[in-house]
Amino acid sequence: MRQFFVGGNWKCNGTTASVAELVSGLNAEALPTEVEVVCSPPFLFLDQVQGAMGPGIAVAAQNCWTGAGGAYTGEVSADMIADKGLKWVILGHSERRALCGEDNETVATKTKYAQEAGLDVILCIGETLEEREGGSMFDVLDAQMGAVVAAGVDWARVVVAYEPVWAIGTGVVATPEQAQEVHEYLRKWMAERISPEVGADTRIIYGGSVNPGNCDDLATRDDIDGFLVGGASLKAADFGTIVRAGEKSLATSA
User: Fold this and answer.
1) CB-based burial, 89-107: b 16+ in 10 Å, e otherwise
2) pTM (two decimals)
3) What is the DSSP letter of 212?
4) Is 29 among the catalytic positions?
5) Any residues with CB less than 8 A from the CB of 123 and at least 6 apart, and which?
6) Could you read off the pLDDT of 135-146 as tens digits, one per residue?
């Protein structure tokens, strides 16, 4: 059975004081040990969070460079992240793709190198509203996934995060039926294009305005293995509620 996975993406938010308060709140939450939990603060706060976060929550980076370190001002290499003792990095987030011009091949290159440096990857994919309404949603997802397949990554060390761009930070959430449809499609796609084992074993999580009010319904869908949470991850109580939705997923699968 695939282990439920919840990641908190803090994005470009926080101060020393607010991060300390958030970590303290998260440490006070009663989180199920059966759920794998990761939080991803901005780079400046990684040391602070690593030093203060309790053992039930791993710490992840939000991005990395395409290769080894060097004359790349402002970038952070996967080797540096691994050297700090981190296990996870988020790659391919729609904000990186749209605002920083990262194309599918760039994301694939980062994914491959991050794994070579010793990191596991939360790989973000998703379509815009125009692509969904224009009928090209599955073509977009095929291209995003296909580039990573071509890079020859280790899928046992990838969590796929499906994040419809139109639902990120907008308050609009894909219905459980819409989310399940895409997750089921992706699982079948991996089974056919990579291997049946990869299709069955890879965790596919949902991201896009996940909150305490919708997490339970989403968590019980057959092919939704967790969440990548944005705004709600900045509130310890809300994030705790979302993590505990994983217990309902386990109960449904039992």
Assistant:
1) bbbbbbbbbeeeebebebb
2) 0.96
3) T
4) no
5) 91, 92, 107, 111, 148, 158, 159, 160, 161
6) 999 999 999 999
pLDDT tens per residue, range 93-124:
999 999 999 999 999 999 999 999 999 999 99
| CATH code for residues 5-253 | 3.20.20.70
Contact assessment for residue 40 and residue 90, using Cβ atoms and an 8 Å cutoff: yes
What one-character DSSP code corresponds to residue 3?
Answer: P
Tell me how far apart the alpha carbons of residues 235 and 227 are, in angstroms, rounded to a whole number. 15
User: Domain ranges in the chain?
Assistant: 5-253
Q: Which of 93, 102, 131, 183 is catalytic?
A: 93
Tokens 């509203």, located at residue? 129
Catalytic option among 36, 95, 102, 163? 163
Helix intervals (H) in the chain: 16-28, 46-52, 78-83, 94-100, 104-116, 129-133, 137-151, 176-193, 196-201, 215-219, 236-253
Q: Is 130 a catalytic residue?
A: no
